[in-house]
Amino acid sequence: MTGLCFGQKELSKKPAKVVKIDSGKVEIRKIDTAEVSAYSKQRDFIYDDVPPESLSLWDRFWNWLWDLIGRAFRNKVSGSLIKYVLLGLVIVIVIFLVIKLVGLDYKVLTGQSKALDIPFEETLENIHEINFDEQLELALQSYNYRLAVRLLYLKTLKQLSDQKIISWLPDKTNRAYVSEIQDVQKREVFSDLTLQFEYIWYGEFFIDKNTFESVHQSFQQFNSSKV
């Protein structure tokens, strides 16, 4: 009881706190609009708040893909087999998308080629019966420049066969015909023409009129040259 009374006496001796009122003069500063305008024109003080461009569907796909791969390899719980299976699946998807975007026939990758809708076959009898000028005109009228290049190549083979420079057989390859040409210079030129033809026809690459005219000129020069 005595201790409690003593504590109350000690507390009563502390002076009461006095709230002081700030009597200082407040200085109102005005902003110089001309100075602000001058600063705003300086390069260091230009802050363009440009909203980020929205990602395209293709960009969102790649972001999702890389995020999926990253999560798979960061996940220590998943076994290595799952990671490799997932990675293999991703590779297959990417290859499939690339083939679709390029427009390449997937059979080309396996050494096969899809059936081609053409009005004639590459046989000994037909190649001598084809009216190449007529068929070439029809191909150009329909803007089928790939078929036109094919006709130019078959016509060249026919001319070489007629000149006894090559021996035409249905089961021979184009490279076999190249090797049959005895003249070295003519063989090299025909080898280049064969490469162009195979690139355009079997590779199924699109060519325009200008490209065809360039290829056509090369065939004309070859066919007009003397052995």
UniProtKB/TrEMBL annotation:
Entry's transmembrane regions: 81-103
Keywords: Membrane, Transmembrane, Transmembrane helix
Source domain of life: Bacteria
Domain Protein-glutamine gamma-glutamyltransferase-like C-terminal: 152-217
Pfam families assigned to the protein according to its UniProt record, in alphabetical order: DUF4129 (PF13559)
Protein name (record): Protein-glutamine gamma-glutamyltransferase-like C-terminal domain-containing protein
Organism field: Pedobacter rhizosphaerae
